[in-house]
Amino acid sequence: GLKEMIENAQNVIIMGHQTPDMDCLGSAVGLMGACRCLGKESRFILQEINTSISSLMDYLSRDKNYLNNFIKPKEVASLTTEGTLLIVVDTQSQSYVEVPQLVDHVENIVVIDHHRASGKSIAGTIFSYLEAYASSTCELVTELLQYFGNKEIIGVTEANALLSGMCMDTKMFTVKTGVRTFEAASYLKR
Question: Cα-atom radius of gyration of the chain, to the nearest Å?
């Protein structure tokens, strides 16, 4: 599963869609927390902080674990090696990711997304979790983390980030909300 892929990677790069929102960033934070717990270095590619994520970025800036987790697109080449695992969150379209050419340069790619496919999808992934019925990518990441079989896999910061993405995409649990959404949310509250 995903846990083994992270454990076997040399490092992890997480990339979302252009102009990331709370669901995109929140799911990335959940994954970065898991990587840290598994002893793997991870980075999220972020061109700039836009208004929709500024409050979450502000919150993360107060957590010393997130001082060096964000990199600019131009810095990513220096961190990409043969053993790099690329995790794409909140999109499956190659043209919509922050650095489209990165997809062609990394061998091991994971895609986690809750949208219906549109445009050219990322091909040759080693693992995809694509569920259009899910409320949010944060919901899907939360489900995956529960299978890691490790109670300490994420901390309070990550749980809050994942929950904030879920709240945003469901308009406070009024839209696209199913049983699994509430199950994921209750796991995060715990």
Answer: 15
Exposed, middle or buried, 38 (CB in 10 Å: 0-12/13-18/19+)?
A: middle
* Strand 70-71 relative to strand 11-15, pairing: unpaired
Give CA–CA dist 18/35, Å, rounded.
23
pLDDT tops 90 at residue 117: no
- Comparing CA positions, the residue from 44, 18, 72, 11 lying closest to residue 158 is 44
- Sequence-distant (6+) residues with CB within 8 A of 67 are none
112: tokens are 């986690």
Cα–Cα distance measured from residue 124 to residue 110, given in angstroms and rounded to the nearest whole number? 9
CB 142 within 8 A of CB 188: yes
Residue range 97-111, pLDDT digits in tens: 999 999 999 999 999
Q: What does the alpha-carbon distance between residue 28 and residue 24 come to, in Å, rounded to a whole number?
A: 6
Over pLDDT 70: what percentage of the chain? 100
Short-list 90, 115, 88, CA closest to 20: 90
Q: What are phi and psi of 51, to 5 degrees?
A: -65, -30
- Rounded Cα distance between 117 and 140, Å, is 16
**E strand or H helix at 153:** none
Q: Which residue bears the tokens 């220096």?
A: 78
